């Protein structure tokens, strides 16, 4: 069973997540000058969530076309995820930062403050997703 026998609409977002996650780990290791396993998770360059939804939107665009209801649904999902990453999750990070500053009990584990994304991180995730979507549209 080869990679092309797995349904393309199933494997594409997984592969985009994998590529973006590996790239993010690499960027974090370079920036921190160490193996940054503790920074795996939300936030950082590129956005995994943007890569996942971007891969599906681009795959649908390349395989089905731009003037289809499928592409409309995919783009709607992209907007929801991007707005969430840029605004709601950014606010959650700010709240975590304040809670950590106010915490009296320093023995408790601090809340993760980096959960949102900058516009550049989101754009990089969308670019990774678009490239993966293009690749898989041509492989299937």
UniProtKB/TrEMBL annotation:
InterPro entries: DUF212 (IPR003832)
The UniProt record lists the keyword Transmembrane helix: yes
Source species, domain of life: Bacteria
Segments traversing the membrane: 6-27, 39-62, 68-88, 119-137
Signal peptide: none
Alphabetized Pfam families for the sequence: DUF212
GO molecular function (one): peroxidase activity
Keywords, ordered alphabetically: Membrane, Transmembrane, Transmembrane helix
PANTHER family: ACID PHOSPHATASE/VANADIUM-DEPENDENT HALOPEROXIDASE-RELATED PROTEIN, ACID PHOSPHATASE_VANADIUM-DEPENDENT HALOPEROXIDASE-RELATED PROTEIN
Official protein name in the record: Acid phosphatase/vanadium-dependent haloperoxidase-like protein
